[in-house]
Design goal:
The protein has 9 helices and 5 strands, in the order H-E-H-E-H-H-H-E-H-E-H-H-E-H. With about 190 residues, the chain is of the alpha/beta class. It has a 5-stranded parallel beta sheet with strand order 2-3-1-4-5, sandwiched between helices. The structure holds shikimate-3-phosphate (S3P). The site of shikimate-3-phosphate (S3P) has 10 residues, from loops.
């Protein structure tokens, strides 16, 4: 059942997954939670539940600024209102961009930056491009858009990350979860 290395179990910190769309934050988060038997929460899913609509519909109805505010409120709720509960938290691709959020994320747990090449990102989300508000207007040149956003965001991700893992080099979410457990297990050695 619970098979995390002892030093990870002793840290008493949540694990926060950050990174661009399509890098596997949700799938790896679920796999990690199953492997460690910890609770998993996904900010986008929680926002959808609370708002009663999909992220794309939230963007369309309320605009990006309102979505970003929902994101900050949700993060604070998940990471600081329940500080004694250790979780695996999957965030949205734009979550680390707000200063307020990055403070919450860093204080909230060990931050893992999931990475993937633009090609891998595109192939993972290719069929769902139109449901991604930040990509939907770039259906003619999505790879260029992904590269531009990655260039603008990578420094934000890097500034926050305790560890980085390229999921395009892992054979699936379970393997990525194992890599993370191993990275965390080595943290204090
Ligand atoms: C966003 C990423 C999405 C979602 C929203 C904005 C972004 O989450 O939060 O569409 O700014 O990159 P995923 O990274 O889970 O797709």
């Amino acid at each position: 059942m619970t098979v995390a290395p002892p030093n990870l179990m002793q840290q008493n910190r949540s694990i926060v997954l950050i990174g661009f769309m399509g890098t596997g934050k949700s799938a790896v988060g679920r796999a990690l939670a199953g492997r460690l038997q910890w609770r998993h929460r996904d900010t986008d899913t929680e926002i959808e539940r609370e708002a009663g609509c999909s992220i794309a519909d939230c963007f369309a109805a309320e605009g990006e600024a309102a979505f970003r505010q929902r994101e900050t409120t949700m993060l604070a709720r998940l990471l600081t209102d329940l500080p004694s509960e250790r979780l695996i938290l999957s965030t949205g691709g734009g979550t680390p961009l707000r200063l307020e959020n990055s403070t919450l994320l860093q204080q909230g747990g060990t931050v893992i930056w999931l990475q993937a090449s633009p090609e891998a990102i595109l192939s993972r989300i290719g069929l769902n491009l139109s449901s991604r508000p930040l990509l939907a207007d770039y259906l003619d040149n999505p790879k260029e858009r992904i590269e531009d956003l990655l260039a603008a965001r990578s420094a934000h991700y890097a500034a926050l990350a305790d560890f980085a893992l390229d999921t395009s080099k892992c054979a699936g979410p379970l393997r990525a979860a194992e890599e993370i457990i191993s990275l965390l297990g080595q943290q204090q050695e």
